[in-house]
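Write out a record, focusing on structure:
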Amino acid sequence: MNLAIYFFLAIAVLFASWRYWRRLNYFLHVFQLEGYKLNEFTAWLTANQKDLMLRLSHKVGIGLLLVGIAGFAAGLDTASALLMVLAWPVAFASSRRYRSDQVKKPIRYTNRMKRLLAASLLLGIIPLLLFLAFGAGRELLLIPHILAGLLIADLGAPQWVLTAAELLEPRENRIQEGFKQDAREKILSRPDLKIIAMTGSYGKTSVKNAIARILSHRYNVLATPGSFNTPMGLCLVINNQLKPEHQILVLEMGARYLGDIQELCDLVTPSIAIVTNVGVAHLETMGSQDNIELEKGTIVENVEPGGLAILNADDPRVNGMSARTHVANIFRVGIENTDADLVASDISYSREGASFVVTDRSDGTRQTFRSKLLGRHNIINLLLAIAVGRAMDLRLRQMAHAVAQMEAVDHRLKLRDEGLITVLDDAFNSNPIGARNAVEILGQFRDGKRIIITPGMVELGDIQDEENEAFGRSIAENADVVMLIGPKQTAPIRRGLVDAGFPEDAIHTFNSLAEAQRYLGEIADKGDTVLYENDLPDHYDEAA
């Protein structure tokens, strides 16, 4: 009998270890998705503690452990051990929450993540070793000690990640400071390098890519890839990719907290700075829109003497940032603000994209631009890029050719055909301005059903429900079928839809994007248009 018990114990340990590995990796992944920020990870754990910290499988495990302990106390050693050994694999393997087959943004095992993983594993092993020490030499009593140690290791997975991050933080700070110093020295060694930097609540990556495309017709340009807009992202590009032959460095500056822009400007001083807008992105961490305005305007204060600040004049908060500098020249662009230095007018849209006329009020020149990019916000983004080209001595006609060749950035209101249906892919991120523009464009497609798939908007602080409810009302005017991802987080959108008179039988709610896509495959017909508006990271999914 003892051999059989130990055989099943080995199976139980394997199952428990596998589940612990998956659970630990899940929390490490969340920590990475939260930008390695201890405060944000802690806030996420607090918000999800009922769903993730103590699962049903843990409750079953604790119950079995208590039953087993009672059985041992009553002298039923063999029966108690066998019960626990047989039941624990089921208890540990019962949760699907940590075993997602479709990960949107997989965990990246960077050097930092490897250090975190090693430290977390070590912390999780400590309770198991302690229980083994207590049960050593006691034969069957060793079994509940092993299982108790595995349970505590599993239960503590988020705490091990949090503790490991806290312990490693001083070392990580020293490593990061070394990267920053290398980047500063490299930039100082290149006084000939023209640095173009942009910030704003939305549109940074689109503007950056447009600038790089326009300027590359004359200059050797290096632009930061993707959304590399953090200190470490900039350091990675500067230290590893910046070459002597590069004439221009184009980068974006992101901010989630007050002081983030100044930290980036301490790395690089912009020759030309662009501010796209002041919205409500990261309102939750910034505290107020006034703080966001204050933070974004920091880039204007850091423009080198004699440099240029290019501002979106249609945004009153951005337009007023000219007062933030006395050493830089100011240039404004706009659509509604016709007093701007560069103005877009005569805007129209079709399946081929957008058409608009740009007027340079400094010399009166006009040029028609055509672009595959859709949306009013994208025209402002292009105007900001065209203003940079103008500052770098490119003519409007030259830039019109570059803009016509420009492809939409992936997942930023990109139009594409997928067999029988047309897809408007705006899944990268969502904000009140961009979301409203996207659904208005969806409303212009009338060949078939107009379908929107969205989890709504997040990180909007106290106004999140209000903005999502308004988003629902906007959807009601422009869509025929609505597919919501996440019953809890999309409840305000549903309210807005219903309040606007949208038929409830055309509203469908799912726990994950994968479920919504399966349903889309069942209902989509030839000529339908589907708008993907936002795609939240995996840890926002409400799947069981």
About this structure: The chain has a mean pLDDT of 85. The chain has three domains: 2-170, 190-405, 414-540. Residues 414-540 form a domain with the Protein-Tyrosine Phosphatase; Chain A fold (CATH 3.90.190.20).
